[in-house]
């Protein structure tokens, strides 16, 4: 498989209202909520940074440069959007009480807000939530119908799709995954014909980003199949929990059964090589909820402009909410 259609099915049907999205960085504001206070002691520093039109790895690189450490010594809880205004925490390993002029981090696009001692490095997904304030400009179409959609999202949530950014620009991470799994399959077939891999032979390790994109793509395939059948909101027969969930593929038994297992097997049949590749990449089979219910969801119209405010858990995508509301018209500059 080599064609990656990212136009996944809509729960509410394709939106008829269009809106300008990310015309300015200030149209997309994110506040990272750690959910805990810095401990005040330890071998790491926590830095809270307000950034505008900068990506997370760039800020992390600047922190490492100023501290005189390796990039791997800098941690953060997740990647935040570049074309946005975001408040985000970083950790840096500094066991010695070094006198560092952190004001060097300040620039036209970044501002240091706070520095605290802490006892451990920040890890991906460790934070509690992300708070969003998003302005959609110049909404065109039936605004009463948009109001109906807003109420539906508030009451029932949206499909918990992984957002397009997970898959890279022009689905580049998925194309890389396709090449990876095709090469791996060819190598395995060749090894079988020759009697197996030689002792001690190792495969080159794929990047975590590519594997994450592949798992996300497979999850979206299952979710799309359930959205098309209007079976995504409630658990199906064969569900392992009281929530409707889909697989994050990896090694181990798929816990679903019955009707649900049949649906997932059918949805993933064209991607059997990917499933096989992920099983051999050292990832464990997991489940992810199919329903995203934005917390503290409010909205306000200012003429044709719509301002949304809501909170999401780590791993949830704001674009999964927005896509159910409007057709988003994005300026080319925000592609980065």
UniProtKB/TrEMBL annotation:
Top-level taxon in the UniProt lineage: Bacteria
Keyword set, alphabetical order: Isomerase, tRNA processing
Compositional bias segments (type: Basic residues): 192-201
Record's keyword annotation contains Membrane: no
Catalytic reactions on record: uridine(13) in tRNA = pseudouridine(13) in tRNA
GO molecular function: RNA binding; tRNA pseudouridine(13) synthase activity
Pfam families: TruD (PF01142)
Region (Disordered) residue spans: 189-209
Family (UniProt): Belongs to the pseudouridine synthase TruD family.
EC number: 5.4.99.27
Protein name, as recorded: tRNA pseudouridine synthase D
Active-site residue list: 81
UniProt feature coiled coil, ranges: none
Known function: Responsible for synthesis of pseudouridine from uracil-13 in transfer RNAs.
InterPro entries: PsdUridine_synth_cat_dom_sf, PsdUridine_synth_TruD, PsdUridine_synth_TruD_CS, PsdUridine_synth_TruD_insert, TruD_catalytic, TruD_insert_sf, TruD_pseudoU_synthase
PANTHER family the record matches: TRNA PSEUDOURIDINE SYNTHASE D (PTHR47811)
Domain TRUD: 157-336
HAMAP family for this protein: TruD
GO CC terms of this entry: cytosol
Annotated source species: Simiduia aestuariiviva
GO biological process: tRNA pseudouridine synthesis
Enzyme class: isomerase
